[in-house]
Amino acid sequence: MTTLKSKLQEDLNAAIRERDELRSSTLRLTLTAITKEEVAGKEKRELSDDEVLKVITKEAKKRREAADAFAQGGRPEQAEREKAEGELLAAYLPKQLSDEELNRIVAQAVEEARAAGAEGPRAMGAVMKIVNPKVAGQAEGGRVAAAVKRLLAG
């Protein structure tokens, strides 16, 4: 069974052979971020695929934020580059939930939390606890929190 990390490594080697500069530099930076994460603790360890996904998610988010910043700063070429890198990384992530899917999951969680006695603004934490494991890797935290707030306020 190939790990996600070894898949990234293979794709990097292919990109280098094909002289695909965008792909090779993006994958190289991502593999560096993974390695950094592996040596971050007390002892070096191999990241699980889930942990590798978290790193890729973080890297993709960084690219999106940088793309927005460059776009606002009037640097469209750099914004495009960051956006392209973000999209390249997104291909390794689980498919993101649509707004409808996310709202459905959040609505169920709100019901569960209410059934357990969580009401009003205090219910936010309870609902997030139910929703997060269900949407892990398929929706960004900020998006989830916004949906929860919307439904709790509604």
Structural overview:
This protein is an all-alpha fold. Helix content is 74%, strand content 0%. Helix 1 (4-17) runs antiparallel to helix 2 (21-38), helix 2 crosses helix 4 (76-90) and helix 6 (123-135) crosses helix 7 (141-153).
Gist of the model:
With 154 residues, the protein is an all-alpha fold. It has helices at residues 4-17, 21-38, 49-72, 76-90, 99-115, 123-135, 141-153.
Structural class: mainly alpha
Helix content range: over 70%
Radius of gyration: 19 Å
The overall strand count is 0
State the major sheet: none
SSE order, as H and E?
A: HHHHHHH
How confident overall, as mean pLDDT? Answer: 91
Poorly predicted sequence stretches spanning 5 or more consecutive residues? none
Shape: globular
Strand content: under 5%
Oligomerization category of the chains in this entry: single chain
Give the number of helices: 7
* N-to-C CA distance: 46 Å
Topology of this protein?
Blueprint: H1 4-17, H2 21-38, H3 49-72, H4 76-90, H5 99-115, H6 123-135, H7 141-153
Helix pairs in contact: 1-2, 2-3, 2-4, 3-4, 5-6, 5-7, 6-7
What are the key terms here?
globular, mainly alpha, 154 residues
